[in-house]
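User: Design a sequence. Structure:
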């Protein structure tokens, strides 16, 4: 995997707060995603959480994080409703950077 995310770390990303592999900003972004997915209503009024967010991220970065999280959540739910989530085994495809034939035009 690219950008330092090996297979073991990828499979343990849900343990982001315990395994010591992520920066404080990455942990905070993961916490935002987790809370947005599971209890967005409570997230809205958690002033202490937003103070932590604003100490690490600009307003624009927070908006971009929330937009990406919302998009991914929406697409994931859409794929689940249509029952196509497992029809595209992205994790089994070759990485274009590692497979020169990926760019070959038959």
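Assistant: Done.
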């Amino acid at each position: 995997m690219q950008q330092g995310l090996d297979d073991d770390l990828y499979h343990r990303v849900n343990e982001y707060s315990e395994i010591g592999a992520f920066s404080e900003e990455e942990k905070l972004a993961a916490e935002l995603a987790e809370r947005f997915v599971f209890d967005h209503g409570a997230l809205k009024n958690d002033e202490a959480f937003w103070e932590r967010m604003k100490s690490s991220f600009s307003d624009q970065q927070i908006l971009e994080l929330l937009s990406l999280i919302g998009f991914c959540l929406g697409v994931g739910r859409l794929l689940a409703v249509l029952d196509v989530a497992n029809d595209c085994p992205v994790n089994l495809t070759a990485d274009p950077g590692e497979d020169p034939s990926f760019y070959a035009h038959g």
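The helical segments are 7-11, 24-44, 47-56, 59-81. The radius of gyration is 17 Å.
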